[in-house]
């Protein structure tokens, strides 16, 4: 297929996944900040939201401090923030238009209808909490519909695999970023200084990656920070864990490799990261420093993005 | 101006046979039901994303072309005649182009004046002596047809460069079949859905000799901001070919390749929807970012077929148009089946004098204009506009032609105050491959939605209709 088409499919999936993640982050932050101060401590949760979205630096160039009003606006509706939900949806629609021939009509319909629907939101904004909640839900549902229609209607060929690569690479990045910002509340109990108020932080992290219920099913335990970290990093059954993202990245890259009759640096690099995750356990990770581990992962993951681009997309 | 030909009603109250069933159905269908279907159709168009961009407006403006749900109907007998005329016309266009870029018999016979060719900016000297596969220049033609009476079909304009609109012909039919299955059950409407198949086989049939057994065809688009982008992606999808932009193609050793995820792949035929000027910055406009550097040298080397060929503009030029009846006779030795609109060539002093005397009755068009821009519609224009145009015309008479204002035929159309006659034209699409010329029965009917208006262009308030050819 055309390199440009593959590139568009890859980015289309990334934008949709990012929009969903932003909506979840805002949602989780709204919940935790609605609690009385005694339950969440002194951290500015809106500042964390900016950090997990990776846009804190650009935000503070134009804003003095982070609060609900300006962060929700910046992450959702801002035309100046290149990774706002709005710009993700706009970019997704533009990408969809330029690769219409590679999309199924269901996928196009999802993006195009959402784009049409959201035009009104961009011009009017959301005036109440209820409006905002509705908007955030709509964005998440759009991503689910898009993902679902891709899964159900696309031919299993390179178009599908490249779009999956975008999805899992973005997803791994998002999960890693929230871990990066919140790692200090995930340290094992003996080293931990926060106390019970962190319970709400842990549930907030899980909620932003839609894993709160999953946690209980997997561990049948009350919330424990190292288990939260275990779930998000190493547990292969949770779709948003780093391990699971890398299982998928390796599988999709292998399928491309088989179809094209050649493996390359992207396949090797992805396999390397997956093997490292497979042979790690939480004890070792804590021993060597969870923060260092996550930062290394984020760098490795974005390196994979560069390698894929070089190998296939240009 | 004469009374317009009504395609549905015979003066005196009777109906033309092709419309009888539709009239019966309209009687049974309450107006609210029509209005409801109309809204449904609009929603479908928006959801599918069948939009076009209007130049001169903000970049992101996407508009719908209004769709009228009342079909325009023609009998099979009428179509047979029209089809014959279209094939004749397109054969002549191709022979004319072959001649202009080779022997130039028609110039030596003094049927068409030399300067109209050689001083014409759409004449491409690069094409002199250039061999094109099977001598086909115009693979896809859109011939704009109007009717003024029950007998004749008149050509308003030949479109031999990159005619657009065929996606509307196909989508209008899809949407009509979805919305009015009962109406289709009561008619025998000839299908149009094989158009993409016929287009693909026409394109493959003209692949260069150096192509492999299974030639690779691609559609070249200027990109998502082009006004006809929807059509480009629609056609690429239906044909199952890659939709490429200039930056996806490279030329190596006079062969054209596209960049793919598996490395480069040779392309043999390009269905290009990019104008000549922008095709190759090395040959034409150096500032073009839409084209492919080196494409013209690959073309000259015979390794790529461009459809339509470069330089076809010389055949659909409005100044050449007036010579079409003679052109048909010269090459085919036949009487033209399709008529021409009477045309005054302002370059000729006698004609110019007549035009200047009758400006308020005539339509004056720029020879190189298109899309209904830059023309004067005498009867509808104010005195001041006419006077301003008169000066323009005197300054540069060779840039204009004039025609009588024609009473385009009318068809019943949904309006705010119920069904009413509105003026229509028709653009059938004529495909020419190595062996045959084919036309799917139908075309794009454009309708001027404003009462009394004769301008059917989508950029100026025109809409479209589904076009039915009855299979009798």
Shape of chain A: globular
Report low-confidence residues of chain A grouped into runs of 5 or more.
Answer: none
Mean pLDDT of chain A, as a whole number?
90
Structural class by SSE content of chain B: alpha+beta
Biggest interface: A-B, 24 and 22 residues
Q: Total number of helical segments of chain A?
A: 16
Number of helices of chain B: 15
Secondary structure: number of strands of chain B: 21
What general form of chain B does the structure show? globular
Strands of chain A, total number: 0
Strand content of chain B: 15-25%
Can you tag this structure with a few keywords?
heterodimer; A: 314 residues; mainly alpha; globular; B: alpha+beta; 5-stranded mixed β-sheet; 15 helices
Question: How would you explain this protein's 3D organization?
Answer:
- The complex is a heterodimer of chains A (314) and B (472).
- With 314 residues, chain A is mainly α.
- The N and C termini of chain A lie close together (12 Å).
- Chain A has helices spanning 3-33, 37-40, 45-52, 56-62, 68-76, 85-98, 105-124, 129-153, 158-182, 198-208, 212-219, 225-233, 242-260, 265-278, 282-288, 290-313.
- The mean pLDDT of chain A is 90.
- The longest helix of chain A is centred in the first third of the chain and has 31 residues, at 3-33.
- With 472 residues, chain B is α+β, with helices and mostly antiparallel strands.
- Helices cover 31% and strands 21% of the residues of chain B.
- Chain B is built from 15 helices and 21 strands.
- Chain B has helices spanning 20-28, 31-48, 76-100, 105-108, 114-118, 166-179, 181-185, 195-205, 229-239, 295-300, 313-316, 318-321, 324-332, 349-357, 383-395; strands spanning 67-74, 140-146, 154-159, 217-220, 242-244, 249-252, 255-260, 263-266, 269-272, 305-307, 339-340, 344-345, 362-366, 376-377, 400-404, 410-415, 418-427, 429-432, 437-439, 444-448, 462-469.
- In chain B, the strands form five sheets. Chain B has a five-stranded mixed sheet with strand order 1-21-20-17-16. A five-stranded mixed sheet of chain B has the order 11-3-2-18-19. A four-stranded parallel sheet of chain B has the order 5-4-9-10.
- In chain B, a hairpin with a 4-residue loop joins strand 18 and strand 19 (437-439).
- In chain B, helix 3 (76-100) crosses helix 13 (324-332).
- Chain A binds chain B through residues 1-6, 94, 97-98, 100-101, 105, 108-109, 112-113, 116, 158, 162, 256, 260, 312-314, and chain B through 46-49, 223-224, 229, 233-234, 236-237, 242-245, 247-248, 258-262.
């Amino acid at each position: 297929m055309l390199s440009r088409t593959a590139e568009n499919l890859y980015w289309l999936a990334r934008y949709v996944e990012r929009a969903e993640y932003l909506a979840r982050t805002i949602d989780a932050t709204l919940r935790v900040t609605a609690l009385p101060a005694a339950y969440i401590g002194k951290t500015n949760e809106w500042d964390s939201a900016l950090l997990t979205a990776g846009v804190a630096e650009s935000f503070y160039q134009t804003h003095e401090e982070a609060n609900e009003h300006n962060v929700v606006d910046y992450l959702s509706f801002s035309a100046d923030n290149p990774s706002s939900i709005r710009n993700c949806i706009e970019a997704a629609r533009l990408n969809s238009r330029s690769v219409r021939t590679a999309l199924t009509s269901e996928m196009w319909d999802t993006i195009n209808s959402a784009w049409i629907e959201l035009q009104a939101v961009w011009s009017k904004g959301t005036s109440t909490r209820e409006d905002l909640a509705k908007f955030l839900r709509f964005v998440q549902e759009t991503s689910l519909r898009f993902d679902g229609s891709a899964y159900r209607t696309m031919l299993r060929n390179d178009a599908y695999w490249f779009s999956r690569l975008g999805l899992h690479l973005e997803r791994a990045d998002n999960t890693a970023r929230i871990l990066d910002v919140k790692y200090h509340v995930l340290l094992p109990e003996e080293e931990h200084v926060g106390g019970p108020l962190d319970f709400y932080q842990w549930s907030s992290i899980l909620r932003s990656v839609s894993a709160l219920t999953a946690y209980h099913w997997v561990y049948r335990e009350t919330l424990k920070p190292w288990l939260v970290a275990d779930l998000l990093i190493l547990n292969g059954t949770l779709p948003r864990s780093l391990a699971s993202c890398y299982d998928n990245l390796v599988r999709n890259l292998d399928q491309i490799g088989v179809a094209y009759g050649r493996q390359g640096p992207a396949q090797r690099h992805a396999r390397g990261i997956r093997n490292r995750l497979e042979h790690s356990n939480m004890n070792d990770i804590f021993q060597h420093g969870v923060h260092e581990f996550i930062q290394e992962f984020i760098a490795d993951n974005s390196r994979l993005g560069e390698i894929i681009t070089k190998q296939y997309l240009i | 101006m004469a009374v317009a030909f009504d395609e549905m009603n015979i003066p005196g109250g009777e109906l033309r046979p092709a419309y009888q069933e539709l009239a019966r159905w309209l009687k049974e269908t309450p107006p609210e039901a029509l209005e409801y279907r109309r809204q449904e159709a609009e929603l479908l168009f928006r959801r599918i994303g069948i939009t076009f961009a209007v130049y001169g407006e903000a970049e992101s403006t996407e508009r719908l072309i209004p769709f009228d749900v009342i079909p325009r109907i023609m009998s099979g007998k009428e179509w047979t005649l029209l089809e014959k005329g279209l094939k004749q016309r397109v054969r002549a266009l191709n022979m004319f182009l072959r001649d202009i870029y080779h022997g130039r018999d028609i110039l030596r016979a003094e049927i068409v004046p030399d300067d109209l060719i050689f001083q014409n900016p759409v004449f491409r000297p690069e094409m002199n002596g250039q061999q094109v596969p099977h001598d086909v220049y115009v693979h896809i033609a859109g011939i704009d047809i109007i009717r003024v009476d029950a007998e004749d079909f008149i050509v308003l304009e030949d479109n031999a460069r990159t005619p657009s609109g065929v996606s509307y012909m196909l989508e209008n039919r899809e949407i009509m079949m979805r919305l009015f299955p009962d109406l289709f059950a009561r008619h025998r409407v000839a299908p149009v859905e094989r158009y993409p198949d016929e287009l693909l086989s026409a394109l493959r049939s003209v692949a260069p000799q150096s192509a492999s057994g299974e030639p690779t065809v691609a559609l070249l688009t200027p990109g998502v901001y082009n006004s006809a982008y929807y059509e480009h992606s629609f056609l690429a999808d239906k044909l199952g070919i890659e939709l490429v932009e200039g930056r996806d193609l490279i030329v190596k050793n006079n062969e054209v390749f596209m960049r793919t995820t598996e490395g480069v792949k040779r392309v043999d035929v390009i269905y290009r929807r990019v104008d000549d000027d922008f095709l190759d910055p090395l040959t034409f406009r150096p500032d073009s970012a839409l084209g492919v550097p080196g494409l013209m040298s690959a073309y000259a080397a015979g390794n790529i077929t461009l459809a339509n060929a470069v330089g076809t503009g010389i055949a659909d030029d409005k100044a050449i148009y007036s010579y079409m009846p003679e052109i048909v006779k010269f090459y085919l030795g036949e009487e033209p089946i399709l008529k021409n609109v009477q045309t005054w060539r302002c370059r000729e002093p006698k004609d110019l004098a007549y035009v200047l005397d009758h400006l308020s009755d005539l339509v004056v068009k720029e020879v190189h204009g298109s899309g209904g821009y830059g023309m004067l519609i005498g009867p509808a224009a104010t005195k001041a506009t006419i006077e301003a145009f008169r000066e323009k015309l005197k300054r540069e008479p060779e840039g204009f032609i004039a025609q009588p204002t024609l009473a385009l035929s009318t068809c019943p159309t949904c309006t705010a105050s119920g069904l009413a006659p509105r003026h229509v034209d028709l653009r059938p699409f004529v495909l020419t491959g190595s062996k045959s010329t084919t036309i799917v029965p139908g075309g794009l009917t454009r309708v001027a939605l404003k009462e009394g208006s004769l301008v059917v262009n989508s950029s100026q308030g025109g809409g479209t209709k589904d076009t039915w050819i009855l299979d009798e």
